[in-house]
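User: I'm curious whether this sequence folds into something compact or stays loose and floppy. Could you predict its structure so I can see for myself?
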Amino acid sequence: MSDTTTEARRLAIESIATLVNVKRSAADQLLRRAGAPEDLIVKFLKDRDQATGERLSKRVAATAMLDDLAMRGLEERFVGALIDIACDWDAFHLSADEYRARAIVQKAREIRGELAEHAEREAARNRARAQEARARQDAERASQLSQQSGLLLAQFDHLAASDDPHGRGFLLQDLLGRLFALHEFPVARSFQRNEGGEQIDGAFEMAGWHYLVECRWRKAPADMRDLDGLLGQVTRSARQTMGMFLSINGWSHNVVSLLKQSPDKAIVLMDGYDLRMALMREVELRSLIEAKVRALNLSAEPFFSARQLLADVDQKSVGR
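Assistant: Here's the prediction. I'll summarize afterward.
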């Protein structure tokens, strides 16, 4: 406890003991107005000395009350409220010693300013501690992101050398789910629905929308028939659902134009370069997905490349 808060506590006790002579009136004029719990007010009025059986003096009873308030975590607020009452006190006729009561009021006015300064210093210390805690959390988060991204990139490179296309596809689903989870997207791993009639490679959530994901890693580029399955899944979902089609080796030249012709603009495209740039942290994954969705919604473009995002960032940097 600081010197200021100790002095404020002492002043609160003296205020209760001095400003109002009659104990019951002190309870009404001071304790209740300062927000003391009713059970503690009853104790203040009724507690007796164990040795003599006499009712406790206001000073002793006030000290006991503040001890109880401290255990409840209410002392600081009560003391502050009581000092505010004392600062504006003018009912000196209620005191047994008017001059002593006036001195208490003067002291209360002095210490209120000290309490305000103390509160500001404490708030500044708390802000500094919170900022340091956030900085530590950010550093830990950055370290974890760097480490896990490196492991995922190594897994991606290992898959690129694999000669098992079927197994590589399943591992790609796992890698993509882990990447999105690492960047704090709510993720659903591979699942079935409609009584097993549909197999969903995975899904994630962003800004209240759900995105069904389909992954392809084949030598040949994907064609429109590969996307028809995902389009059907999205169509059979609720309205706030879109799709993301990841094809590591891209897609045939007519896929984008056919998607543009579709009345339901609900699919964004992602290729191997996009994924690798996100794994290398050359682009921020969330920024990339947001840019893809923005391009689809505003320009009806189903594919917005990480190359474009990097170029936009470079252009903005030059503009500064």
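Summary: The first strand starts at residue 187 and ends at 188. Residues 159 and 168 are 6 Å apart (CA to CA).
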